Amino acid sequence: MKIAVTSASGKLGASIVKHLVNLIGKDNVIGIARTPEKAAHLGVEIRKGDYNSREQFDAVLSGIDAVLLVSGMDTPDKRIVQHRNVIEAAKQNSVKKIVYTSIVGAEENNAFSPIVQTNRQTEKDIQNSGLEWVIGRNGIYIEPDLEYIDTYVKEGEIRNCAAEGKCTYTSREELGYAYAKMLTEDKHNNHIYNLVGNAITQKQLAEDINTVFNTNLVFKNESVEAYKAERTEALGDFMGTVIAGIYEGIKEGANDVPSDFETVTGRPHLSAIEMMEAFRKAQD
Ligand SMILES: NC(=O)c1ccc[n+]([C@@H]2O[C@H](COP(=O)([O-])OP(=O)(O)OC[C@H]3O[C@@H](n4cnc5c(N)ncnc54)[C@H](OP(=O)(O)O)[C@@H]3O)[C@@H](O)[C@H]2O)c1
Question: Which CATH superfamily is domain 3-137+171-196+258-269 in?
């Protein structure tokens, strides 16, 4: 069984490749990357595939039994077409199964919703493809917060607009394991799964970081408008607005969802503290 993983040069794609290799061996895993040299370290065959090129995907999906489509990073108007290039190429090559990395979040009411909507459209395209399918809705990665700890320490606080809202964080490592299972076990076919851990508040996030990283952070809530202004100043209009939308969604409960992780993997999702400890260990 040959399984291909798109965006293998990215952190999620690389994690899925690594877990797949553990399950089925490196000769059965193919990484697809827009920038192949960035995926060479994975030690599997790498083929070139840019989501903008249907022709490239027609060529690279030849001989593939199952493909994992990692959602793209482009603006919402471009993503649906990019994902369709992969889906149509999979159909043309008689790929049997497609697995898609979607997202948890509110389809309406915040600045992240247009991105959630594009993910929902791709979910529909995949369900209508005629292939066997599995969809994972990923929680928010915890790693970006951990990579940002030095800045949090300088500022003495974690500041955003999530208020008391709870967020079910996950990690790329946990997701990689879940997707490897979804790709290799037929019992998951035709299911949509929430791939998330326990729900915690931002206050709890700060306390857990303090426990694991020996910091002294507190959580400070800001209004959505003030936080959006701060983030767009730092990150530009598109990304700043999206980030503010994500925390507004957390505030409104969009990321407090039940988890299907144990159904998929047969074991509980790691707690936030356990994910932080694993992250710290990987940095050492
Ligand atoms: N759940 C969350 O918290 C969260 C947070 C951020 C993003 N996401 C979503 O999860 C996805 C994967 O995250 P990640 O951590 O792996 O991100 P990442 O490490 O930044 O990697 C992004 C990947 O997307 C690839 N890519 C971008 N445009 C492409 C195109 N036109 N054709 C083919 N590949 C393209 C990049 O390829 P190159 O190496 O060639 O640049 C790279 O491999 C993201 O794309 C995004 O949709 C989720």
Answer: NAD(P)-binding Rossmann-like Domain (3.40.50.720)
